[in-house]
Amino acid sequence: MSFPKFSELKEIDITKIDDQIIKAKKELLFLRIQKANFSRFSPHLLTHTKHQLSQLLTLRRSLYAKKFNVQRLKKKIKKKN
């Protein structure tokens, strides 16, 4: 099973990204509990979930950065005028 591509996530809006981040964090917690209890555990699921979480956090950060940079540029333009 291959890792999901970052380009697949780019079409998602911020609210759905936040929901998916919460789901990924819950799944990581569940997987860590399974690992600690020596129950049925697949190590690759832990790796995939961490990878997905990092992609989602990166995407969320870039979307927020774009949003705030646009606001800063608008303020600079208003100050010049």
UniProtKB/TrEMBL annotation:
MF-aspect GO terms:
structural constituent of ribosome
For the keyword Mitochondrion, the answer is no
Q: Name one Pfam family in it.
A: Ribosomal_L29
Q: Does this UniProt record's set of keywords contain Electron transport?
A: no
> What SUPFAM superfamilies has UniProt attached to this entry?
Ribosomal protein L29 (L29p)
Q: Which GO terms describe its biological process?
A: translation
* Key words, A-Z: Plastid, Ribonucleoprotein, Ribosomal protein
* Gene Ontology CC entries for this record: ribonucleoprotein complex; ribosome
NCBIfam families linked to this entry: L29 (TIGR00012)
Assigned protein family: Belongs to the universal ribosomal protein uL29 family.
Task: Please identify the protein, giving its name as recorded.
Answer: Ribosomal protein L29
The root-end lineage is: Eukaryota, Sar, Stramenopiles, Ochrophyta, Eustigmatophyceae
Task: Report which gene this protein is encoded by.
Answer: rpl29
